[in-house]
Please model this.
Amino acid sequence: MTVFKGYMRVMKHNRGLILLYLAVFTGITMLFQRMAGNNPVTSYRAQSVRIAIVDEDGESLAGELKEYLGQCHQVSVMENDRARMQEDLFYRDVEYIIHIPEHFFETCIVEGRKLQVTKVPGSYTAFYVDQQISSFLNHAKVYYAAGFTQEETAAALSEAEPVKVELMDSGRTLEEMPDYGFYFQYLPYLFLSVLCYVMGNVIAAFGKGDLPKRMRASAVSARRQSLEGLLASAAMAMGLWAVAVAGAFLFYGKRLVESGGLPFYLLNSFMLVLVALSISYLVGTLVHGKNQVNTLNGVVNVLSLGMCFLCGVFVSLDVMSKGVKTVAQFLPVYWYEVVNELVVEFGSVTGEAQRTVFLGIGMQAVFAAALVCVTLVAAKWKRV
Amino acid sequence: MVEIKNLVKRYGDVVALDHLNLQVREGEIFGLLGPNGSGKTTAINCMLALLSFDRGDIRLFGEEMSPDNYKVKQQIGIVLQNVAVFDELTVYENIDYFCGLYIRDKARRKELVDEAIAFAGLEEYQKKRPPKLSGGLLRRLNIACGIAHKPKLIIMDEPTVAVDPQSRNKILEGIQELNRQGSTIIYTSHYMEEVEQICTRIAILDHGRSIAVGTKEELKMMIKTGETITIEAVALAGEQLAAIRDLPHVFAVDYEGQVLTVRCTKARHNLLSLLNYLQEQEIVFGRVFSELPTLNDVFLEITGKQLRD
Model:
């Protein structure tokens, strides 16, 4: 088992790095868990804007506009003093000023002229108020077109029921996610970083310079060397998986066991570790040259962070655009996260969800097999 | 022990080995001498079954060499041109690892590793990792990794490249010691001095062919040059050079940068007769050197070019 021991010794050389990644992973998990725990998003409330109104009309429709906006904004009345307006806007005492002209009904409803407003440029809240004013004026125009007078329009508008917004929580995103959900969500970062870096280093070490020649000229058969190498890699991957699973039990224990999704968490993370191992083999095979360590560093960072950002590790899949999700489907970590989100959401998975879970796990297996094939081709190409 | 017959290796249109024939006997230090690109490393790689070849036959220990002939490989140690050790392992771990590829018994291996460390003079550096070692020490580690399992045949491919003279001498002495301990050694180099110093028989390679084989004395006997005399002389005239060329046993005269080089066949008093002529002609001369032929002269006469061209 000389080759196996050689692999292990080279891996041991990277133990500091493994501990560092474990610490980073634990830190990130705990940080996100705490952040999410402090800000549970469970309700919806309309945005309130500070609005000032300069009313030079004083008629019923102008009063109704004030009333309408006052339902969800802080409305105050202001004198028509240009300097004061500028000062209040500058210091953000108000964010939006409405100038209601004399003969408001005739000017803005009958003649359809624009209502003069002053607002903080580029502010999304101003855009929000624009929409509401536009809606109010459009309604008024409809009433006027139907033959309503100013008083009748104002009265009709005052009777209109405010629109109730009901928040639909389609998933578990607004509920508090179980803490072990975060742990398993961030697991790809740990597996990809540690395995790609450590195994990449080990494979690169065995492929450096004339070392492969020395190995091929030795009395240990090529088949045995490959087998021992694979065994060592598998041992490393299993060791990392065992540490990760042990960490989950240590941190979440009973809650995780009682969640009903434990077998799926274990199976999904096991498949992920195989995927990470196959990626690490490919990286180790392809990265060589004088600046091997630096190149490996760069490649591992791009791979692990890139895949984690794209596939819903650091940012939930729910908030990702369709385009990003389409691209992410071509990466194995996406399927891990799909499975993970389902298991987090449903706990014990059955029916259609179970089919999706097995599809996700199967996709990871396909990716792992494909990556092994690519690695074998790359290794052969490198030898020629 | 090693028999190579009509070995041909091509890389596309380039013929790296052109019907190479070699025979290495047990107990020899056999030198493969040739300029860069002459086919030395290719020949070694073919011998070790690291490279396939187009034609020919290679037999080691009487058996045909193939990539899966592990019985033969068990008896071979290799020291490659580039240092091939793990940066992540210590000196001890490296030697132990490579020895472990041949010797399974732990106690025996420990014994052999300790011996290899002592042989290479690496006792003080056992716990250091290769990046902390100097170039010379690295080369010694490279050798220790190749010979720790006490192979019967050691193949060394330019093991002293980029090594300081002190380390080089230590390495050459070590190779002779290994040979005294019973190992047959195939040693490739483009340093003729090294080959001349340690090899019992030498094959000179050029363009993938063995152009001469024999002991250094036999090789030198093959050529016309018996002595090369070099004299610093000022302003020699054409007729004087012609007269020197007519001296007995002189077959080539060259005068460049006020240095006169005279090549003579093997005879007594060549130097004396030349100095007598210079005195008679009242030619002022400075330093005088007389050299016996070197392997470079052998190469020069056979190929018409310097060994280090």
Notes: Residues 165-180 of chain B form the longest helix (16 residues). Chain B touches chain A through 29 residues (CB under 8 Å). Chain B has a mean pLDDT of 87. Chain B is about 35% helix and 30% strand.
